[in-house]
Inverse folding.
């Protein structure tokens, strides 16, 4: 496991923020535009990226249904690098790869992040980029704190030993070339993908773990928004409204 510290990174980091989902479990299609801590979820993510040193470009992947609102959020900020918007696809992985293809060839490390994780910090982007550059691939993850049961037909089949289980979060970082090659190989074999790290795992590429934070939660259901809201308000309290990262 590597724990990163803020530092200036060699090379250029590109960040792909996937925001093209339909928010079915949340109940609002443009979930990433929902307000949390008085600002759209996506705005928090963009701010965290802007505090991470070494980022050279950002691509936000929007849905046709959310493109206009996403453009408004992007245009409301001023960014020290180009921020482009592209249209995503049916599956999350399609959206990720639409974003990755829009990243310049001069970028060596790509970080993928869910816009639905507004509590991400600049330190997590920095640590993930450093680990990905060193080892080829790295994901932010946290140890599982609940007991996981494998269930079939309404009955427990097995209890998984918890000490080996980690919950994957984002960002996930990759040497850009490795990710594109792994994705093309998966496409040729019509493989379904849950996250991009699993593409590299299948090829035997080590994927480094970067210690994440339990508070880097993904807003999936409406109740998650209340938790994220409370955490972001706590974070900004006493900083004059500016989030510490
Ligand atoms: N995402 C995406 N393109 C897709 C599906 C998901 O860019 N085709 C993005 C979402 O916008 C989100 C992240 O991937 O930022 C994680 O997905 P999830 O939390 O599942 O969001 P939704 O897909 O929008 O929600 P649901 O699955 O409940 O419809
Ligand atoms: Mg989804």
């Amino acid at each position: 496991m590597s724990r990163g510290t803020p530092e200036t990174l060699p090379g250029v980091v590109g960040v792909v923020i996937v925001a093209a989902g339909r928010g079915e479990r949340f109940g609002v299609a443009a979930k990433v535009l929902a307000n949390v801590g008085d600002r759209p979820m996506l705005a928090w993510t963009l701010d965290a990226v802007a505090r991470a040193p070494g980022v050279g470009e950002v691509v936000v992947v929007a849905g046709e249904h959310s493109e206009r609102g996403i453009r408004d959020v992007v245009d409301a900020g001023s960014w020290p690098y180009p921020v482009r918007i592209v249209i995503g696809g049916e599956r999350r992985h399609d959206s990720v790869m639409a974003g990755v293809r829009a990243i310049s060839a001069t970028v060596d490390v790509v970080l993928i992040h869910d816009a639905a994780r507004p509590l991400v910090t600049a330190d997590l982007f920095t640590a993930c980029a450093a680990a990905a550059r060193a080892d080829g691939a790295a994901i932010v993850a946290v140890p599982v704190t609940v007991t996981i049961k494998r269930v079939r037909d309404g009955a427990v089949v097995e209890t998984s030993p918890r000490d080996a289980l980690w919950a994957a979060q984002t960002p996930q970082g990759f040497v850009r070339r490795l990710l594109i090659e792994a994705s093309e190989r998966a496409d040729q074999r019509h493989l379904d993908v849950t996250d991009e790290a699993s593409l590299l795992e299948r090829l035997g590429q080590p994927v480094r773990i970067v210690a994440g934070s339990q508070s880097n939660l993904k807003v999936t259901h409406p109740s998650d928004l209340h938790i994220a809201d409370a955490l972001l308000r706590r974070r900004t309290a006493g900083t004059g409204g500016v989030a510490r990262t």
User: Anything to note?
Assistant: The CA atoms of residues 182 and 199 lie 6 Å apart. The chain has one domain: 10-236.
